[in-house]
Write a structure and sequence with these properties.
The protein is α+β, with helices and mostly antiparallel strands and about 150 residues long. It has one domain (about 5-30, about 45-135). It contains five helices and three strands. The protein has helices at about 10-15, 15-20, 45-60, 85-90, 125-135, and strands at about 95-100, 110-115, 120-125.
């Protein structure tokens, strides 16, 4: 990677961070037309992130209908799981922490969550898919290289 510390310096030494670019931590929650599907911000609650993890569990661990792992709300249609039904399958109710590792190939390698069920590690690619299928509104990850932080 292009930082003095290699991949370990991606978030602290990236040119975008050093230069103060507003794009480094861009909140992607609007469509190109500006529609936000009723959201006023891109931040997820602990319960919403747990819902994404429950979607991941259905997509990659089985136990449910993967075609129903789509966003809730009027913007998407279909027959998505409600949060309670998805929670009964996956069992995640809250997220208290998160850490991310990066690959030498310029992608997010692993996203590790501290949850009510203990520590859960998810490959970057699997999390990318689950997040983009289940995150609320128009919130999305736009690249295979991403960071997730708990504030």
């Amino acid at each position: 990677m292009g930082t003095p510390s290699g991949r370990s310096g991606w978030t602290s030494q990236a040119f975008e961070k050093v230069a103060g670019s507003p794009w480094f931590y861009k909140g992607w929650y609007r469509s190109r037309s500006g529609d936000s599907c009723g959201r006023s911000h891109p931040w997820l609650t602990s319960e919403e992130m747990a819902d994404v993890l429950n979607g991941w569990k259905v997509l990659f661990g089985g136990g449910g209908d993967s075609s129903r792992v789509t966003p809730l709300g009027s913007c998407w249609g279909g027959n998505p799981y409600n949060m309670g039904d998805l929670r009964s399958i996956g069992g995640f109710t809250g997220v208290s922490g998160v850490s991310v590792t990066y690959s030498d190939g310029g992608t997010t390698n692993t996203v590790t969550f501290e949850t009510n069920k203990g520590t859960t590690a998810i490959s970057g690619g699997d999390f990318y898919k689950a997040f983009n299928l289940r995150a609320p509104g128009r919130i999305a990850l736009k690249s295979g290289l991403f960071n997730i932080e708990k504030k």
